[in-house]
Amino acid sequence: MEILKSKRFQNVSIKSVIYAFLFLGAVSVAVPYVWMFVTSIKPIAEIQSYPPSFVVKDPTLLSYKDLFRLIPMWRYMWNSIFVAGTVTLGNLFFCSLAGYAFAKHRFWGRDKIFFVLLGSLMIPWQVNLISGFILMIKLGWLNSYNALIVPQLAGVFGVFLCRQFIMSIPDDLVDAAKIDGCSEFTIYRLVILPLIKPVIATLAIFTFLQQWNSFIWPLIVINSSKMRTLPLALSVLNGQFGTRFAMVMAGAVVATTPMLIVFLAFQRYFMEGIAMTGLKEYGKL
């Protein structure tokens, strides 16, 4: 009995430490967002008051009205949504299709090609900026959606992620579909895709957040105001209206809200993917 009580006490202590650590992490992440929103609805007198406070005595939406009135914020939001959404869909299709080919098909040089792809991850992304810019000039794609979308339609990390997950799917399912007369694309669509929803959701979150926050590449290939994405718009906003803190914070709130929506929409599959990965690793022990 004493041994059982000791183990229970030990388990409760470990869980308490873990929960306390997670709570502190959640608070440290949430506080800046709360402060950002609170500042965006404060009048200038309360922003400049000391000591600063989370309590808003006289809330106002004037900063949001000025944000959409003084700059074409709707246009910038559309650019970011269109670019990030299109790139995400492209990565989900091409990376999962390539992952299926590398995981379930036997062809000459398959492993060597895959290792070369993995090796490309060691190359810093900054190295490709100049060559990518020159390529965009030769193609005539500067200041266009093509320059923002096409170079990002597939990524090595996405191929690796999908390939590792698809390898865990039994080959018998693929063989049974072939016996039934299914084509390769039908097998991919009806057999593989329904089984890899967790990894698809994970890749969608990573890709969308990466493209939504992308700054350097759009800064290089875009010099027209109407083609700016939200990160570029926030940079210009901070430069032109840096003294209007509420307006800058309002822009940050508008820019971060879609990312939260995407994560909340896919978090169930994201957590499921983490849980399934943990079970698979446990099964190997």
Order of helices and strands: HHHHHHHHHHHHHH
Low-pLDDT parts are 277-285
Please state the CA-atom Rg, rounded to the nearest Å: 24 Å
What proportion of the residues form beta strands (DSSP E)? under 5%
Q: Name the CATH superfamily classification of the largest domain.
A: MetI-like
Helix content: over 70%
Describe this structure in words.
The chain is an all-alpha fold. Helix content is 76%, strand content 0%. Helix 3 crosses helix 14, helix 4 crosses helix 8 and helix 13 runs antiparallel to helix 14. It starts with a helix and ends with a helix. The C terminus is likely disordered.
Nutshell version of this structure?
This protein has 285 residues and is mainly alpha-helical. 76% of the residues lie in helices and 0% in strands. The chain has 14 helices and no strands.
Task: For the structure shown, list the relevant keywords.
285 residues, mainly alpha, MetI-like fold, 2 domains, 14 helices, disordered C terminus
Write the layout of secondary structure elements.
Blueprint: H1 2-40, H2 44-47, H3 62-70, H4 73-104, H5 110-120, H6 128-139, H7 145-149, H8 156-166, H9 171-179, H10 184-195, H11 197-212, H12 216-221, H13 230-240, H14 245-284
Helix pairs in contact: 1-14, 3-14, 4-8, 4-11, 9-10, 11-14, 13-14
